[in-house]
Amino acid sequence: MITDIISLIFILPGAFLVFSAAVGTARFNSTLARVHAVTKPQTTGLVLMITGTIIRVTTADDFGVHEKGDIGMMVLLVLFALMTSPVTAQRVGRIARREGLYGGEEQLSRNDRPASYHPRRMNPKG
């Protein structure tokens, strides 16, 4: 009973964070805002939900060899998400900056505007 409550303390906020990431991805207008909505709360929500699930599985009465394999897969899932999420966000943000995929001019601040100078866009003869 106590472990069920503890696992729910992890699972419910995690589910809320994953849901808010999905809503943010659908509602935000600019690419960088969507990247922020996908990476931060989604990864945190996944870690919380997996933690709650591990607590629930390890304290079950019929915990056996097969459940140990399931826990290993969940740990690998969390490690993979923690390794790939920042890299994906960095790459998508870099492409958005290079291509100017920020949205309309009214949505941009001074720091959001694409750089006017880029070494590869420079005329090599002049």
From TrEMBL:
Keywords, alphabetical: Membrane, Transmembrane, Transmembrane helix
GO molecular function annotations of the record: sodium:proton antiporter activity
Pfam families registered for this protein in UniProt: PhaG_MnhG_YufB (PF03334)
Transmembrane segments: 71-89
Annotated spans, Disordered: 103-126
Family annotation (InterPro entries): PhaG_MnhG_YufB
PANTHER family hit by this protein: ANTIPORTER SUBUNIT MNHG2-RELATED
Family to which the UniProt record says this protein belongs: Belongs to the CPA3 antiporters (TC 2.A.63) subunit G family.
Protein name as catalogued: Cation:proton antiporter
The species this protein was found in: Corynebacterium mucifaciens
Classification of source organism: Bacteria, Bacillati, Actinomycetota, Actinomycetes, Mycobacteriales
